[in-house]
Every structure is written in C-alpha cells, then in structure tokens.
TrEMBL record, chain A:
Protein location: Cell membrane
Record GO biological process: transmembrane transport
Membrane topology: Multi-pass membrane protein
The family this protein is said to belong to: Belongs to the binding-protein-dependent transport system permease family. CysTW subfamily.
Short name of any one Pfam family annotated for the protein: BPD_transp_1
Organism the protein comes from: Nitrincola tibetensis
Protein name according to UniProt: Sugar ABC transporter permease
Length: 277, 286
C-alpha cells in the first residue's frame, strides 16, 4: 500500500465525522435558507427576516461591535502590562488572575451574571452598602449591557492569552533598544509592539465574534425579551414554530456578521502589507 | 560649577523617574484590584446563592443561610445526580470517540510530507471557525430523520465533532514532538509497525493525548447549545438542568449545579496551567 493511501485511511474517520456532522448540516442550512419546501429558489425567508427581525439584527451588531472593542482595549491593556511592567510581583498576580474565566463554562458565567447584575445582585448591594446609591436608585443591568459584560468577562481570558502570547514571542532586543533610547512604555507599546502583534489581535477578535454568535445561553439567560440577539431568535423560530427556513435565513445573517468582521480584518492586514493601495 | 549643575540635574531626573515609577506602581495595582473585583464578584455571588435559603430585595445579604438545597441536590433521586451521571457518561464517550479518530489522524498529520496536510488541518478547524448555532439546528433536523434525536448517541456525536478540533490539533502536536529515532530503532530490531506504534510511539505521545482528552471532556461537560437542540427533552445534562432551574427562578439549585460544573473546570485548569504557557500556544499548529 502506498504511504499516501494509508495516510488517507488514517485521517478518513475523523474527516468523515466533520463532513457528515458539520459540513453537511452547514450545506443543509444554506439550501434551506434559499429554498421553499419543494426546493424551488426563493428570497421570501430573507424578506420575512428583515420584516420581523431588523431591530434584532441591529441590536446584535451593536452588541458584537461593543464587545469586540471592549475586548480589544482590555486585553491589549492586560497583555501590555504583562509584557512591559517593571514590577515582577504584580505581573505574577495579573498573569494568574486574568486566566480565571478561561475554563469557566459560558452557562455558568451566564448564571453568575444573572444574579450579580440583577437589581438585588451583589454588585448593586455592595454599592448600596458603600453608600454610593440608595436601594431605590439601583437598576438591573440585565439586558444589552449585561450581555456585553458577560461576553467580555468570559472572553477576556482567551483573547488576552493569545495576545500576551504573541507579545511574549516578540524579540526583546527591540523593546530594550527603544527603552535605551528613552522611549516611554506607552510609546513602545504603540510604535514597537502593537504593529507586530496586529495579526494575533485580529485572530483573537474574529474568533471571539464567532464565539459570541455561537453562544445561546447568554442571550437567553441575560437578555430581556425584546429586542434580543438573533441567536435567541433562531432558537425561538425552531422551538416554537418549527420554522427552519426563517431560522436558517437568520443563521445566514449571523454568518454575514462574522464574515464582515473577518473581511474587515483581512482587508486591514492586506493594506498594512501594501497589497492594496 | 558645571559639574555641580550636572549632579543637581541628575538628582532631579532620578527623583522624577522614581516618582513616575511609584505612580505607575499604584496605577497598576489599582487596575489589578479593579480587575480582581470584577472577576471575583460574580463568583462570590454564585457562592452566596448556593448557601442562601431565602434572599429578598432589598437585603444586602441572604435573610436565611443554610444547606437545605444541598441536601435536595444530593438526594439520590434528585434531577441533579441523574443529570450529573448522564453528563459524565456523555463526556467520557465523547473522549473515547475523539481519541479513536484523532490518534490515527494526528499520527498521519504529524508527518510534514503528507499531501494536503494544511487542508486537512483547516478542515478540523472549521467547526470552531463557524458560528455553530445554525449548524446545530440542522443537525437536530437531520438526526430526527436518522432516529438519533433525543438519544445519548446523538448527543455524544455532536459533542465529539465540537471537541474534534482540540483532539486532532493537540494530537498532531504530540506526535510531532516525539523522537523518530526510537521507532526506527524498534523497527530495525524486528518489531512490527503496530507493535512499534503501541509500545514506542503511543507512550511518548501520551501527555499530549491526555491534555487533548481533558479538553474534549471539559468541552463536552460544558456544552449547552448542541444538547439543547439534539438532546432535549429526553437527555438532560447538567448545563440543561442549570438552564431550566435558572429560568424557573430557582437560583439555589442552578447555582449549586453551576458550582458542580465549575469544580472540574478549575481543577483541570490548574493541571493544564502547568503545561500551557502563552508562549507555547503561539507554536500550536506549526
């Protein structure tokens, strides 16, 4: 037997699993979104999606963009502190601390936030006990802000891990040289480190977007009815109406949101390389 | 004269540098403190709910503390113990399925001369690179035709596909790092290829394969969306139970369930933390 044939046999079962249980359903969703029950082409499902859910689509885009921007700012901040801070003890504490949510399941994070951010949650109670506000002034953060907080809280560990990994892999000599020439730490971050880790930041943020568009538990448990994220709409469409066509059309919109961000990132990185003028 | 000026100037500079350094120390300490509060606050709230019997607005802390709900949860006939066992069975099966298909695939892909190697590596990445909610609803529909909806096997398959990326990629890394001379020596001494694989290659890759198993186990244990569409209502895993209890407003039961889910996650994190450094992560997949 030739080596390549035996290799294909070895990979076969795993590849078949992805084909049958991921690519086939993906293809299925594509067909279902654009056809009627008799497989004739139609755009009626998308018309329905924009009639019923255009508000939710806007809401989802806003949530995704705000989460991604917050994630970028916070994880770059933490990773930069880890790389540039002159205080080894603080770095050790921070390195341990930021990884805490990495393995906490989304559903557990959602349950934590459901109690923490509520009107009677620990956050409001602490603020009341500190005298910052009175019990009557407290507001529940469950809703769009709660969804953003939960996604950032959970996803921060992952994006920081990737970005600080890229920063740690950089050549220290350049940083040292910039330091010797008297550059401030902020200047080193902006002019020396960030340009080199941009690709990793892009990957971390695109993967985070995909995660945000995949997680159903957070919008179901933190969201408050209307408007809601389109992920919750997809589940509702399937569970309440058994309407797979519109659910799949909504799914296409969720792919487009991710693809949009990925496209923006690719275009940006091509521009940096001078491939586009 | 000019010498004293320079010394004075230097003294002023070092004073300024020391001031900046001290200022940035306090700024960083404050940042870390705020981060710690934001990270531990929700966890503390969860822990309080597990031992609160009643907690009403506007009380800062529970009115009544107690372990009543723990007794309810650990009652052998409770939903929690039942779904804990279901969850563990499903997770173990997913690990077995993933290892069975990933060990051969990882071994084959660890040879850099393999044709279409990058293509196959990307193929296994796809389930993580696409938002999978839409895929799950269609799997549920396909499984309905195949009679797999609401069965343990169906849930195991969904979890396995989700975990496949971890197990394949980590297996490839594990098989790539072994010493090829040892298996060549074993073959030269007359051992067959299968004997060599089991007794020489596999033990060297074992740490990586264990890490892969841990990832698949955790992913399966924590998986919600796929089980929600494929398993419910016949198969109830811990995340589904947590969700139902939380939506019914039964925060004690859902918090205790969440805590049970947290224990393996934190435990494995401490184990994996020893092996996984951010610098290493940047080498994965090369």
């Amino acid at each position: 037997m030739r080596a390549s044939t035996s290799n294909l046999l070895l990979i076969g079962p795993a590849a078949l699993m992805v084909l049958a249980l991921f690519l086939y359903p993906l293809f299925f969703s594509l067909v279902s979104a654009f056809t009627q029950d008799d497989l004739s082409f139609t755009l009626a499902h998308f018309v329905k999606v924009f009639e019923l859910y255009s508000n939710d689509i806007k809401f989802t885009v806003i949530i995704v963009l705000s989460s991604v921007v917050l994630l970028a700012i916070l994880s770059i901040g933490i990773a930069a502190t880890l790389t540039l801070s002159p205080f080894p003890k603080l770095v050790a504490v921070l390195a341990l601390l930021y990884r805490l949510p990495l393995f906490i399941p989304f559903i557990v994070a959602a349950q934590m936030m459901r109690t923490f951010l509520a009107k009677n949650g620990l956050m409001n109670n602490t603020l009341v006990a500190m005298g910052v506000m009175t019990p009557l002034e407290t507001v529940s953060l469950l809703g769009w802000s709660g969804i953003i907080i939960t996604f950032v809280w959970k996803q921060l560990a992952f994006s920081t891990l990737l970005i600080s990994g890229a920063m740690a892999a950089l050549n220290r000599d350049q940083i040292q040289a910039a330091q010797n020439l008297g550059a401030s730490r902020l200047r080193i971050l902006v002019d020396v480190i960030l340009p080199q880790v941009m690709p990793t930041i892009g990957v971390a943020l695109v993967l985070s977007t995909v995660t945000i568009m995949s997680v159903l538990s957070v919008p179901l448990m933190i969201g408050t009815g209307s408007p809601t994220m389109i992920t919750a709409d997809i589940a509702f469409r399937v569970n309440s109406y058994g309407d797979y066509h519109v659910a799949n059309a909504l799914g296409m919109v969720s792919y487009l949101i991710c693809a949009g961000l990925a496209w923006f990132y690719l275009r940006q990185s091509l521009k940096d390389k001078g491939a586009l003028s | 004269m000019s010498q004293t000026m320079t010394i004075q100037h230097r003294g002023f500079r070092s004073l300024k540098a020391r001031f900046t350094l001290r200022w940035s120390f306090w700024a960083q300490t404050a940042f870390i403190t705020i981060l710690a509060l934001a990270l531990f606050g929700p966890i503390a709230n969860l822990l309080i709910w597990t031992i609160a019997e009643t907690w009403y607005f506007p009380h800062t802390l529970p009115n009544q503390w107690g372990l009543k709900y723990w007794q309810q949860v650990f009652n052998p006939y409770s939903d929690v113990s039942g779904s804990l066992i279901t969850s563990i069975i499903i997770a173990l099966c997913a690990v077995v399925v993933c290892l069975l298909v990933s060990i051969p695939a990882g071994y084959a892909l660890s040879k850099h001369t393999m044709p279409w190697r990058v293509g196959f590596m990307l193929l296994f990445l796809i389930p993580q690179a696409f938002p999978n909610l839409t895929v799950y609803i269609n799997i549920a529909r396909i499984f309905y035709d195949w009679g797999l909806n609401g069965t343990l096997l169906g849930v195991v398959l969904v979890h396995s596909v989700h975990g496949l990326m971890y197990s394949v990629w980590i297996s490839v890394a594990a098989f790539s790092s072994i010493d090829p001379m040892l298996s060549r020596a074993s073959r030269n001494l007359g051992a067959g290829p299968i004997y060599t694989f089991i007794h020489v290659v596999l033990p060297q890759a074992a740490p990586g394969l264990i890490a892969a198993s841990i990832f698949v186990f955790l992913e399966s244990l924590d998986e919600f969306t796929g089980t929600f569409f494929v398993g419910a209502p016949e198969v109830t895993t811990l995340p589904l139970l947590l969700y139902t209890a939380s939506m019914e407003g039964n925060y004690q039961i859902s918090s205790i369930t969440a805590l049970i889910l947290l224990i393996p996650s934190i435990g494995f994190m401490l184990i994996i933390n020893k092996f996984m450094r951010p610098e290493m992560l940047s080498k994965l997949g090369k």
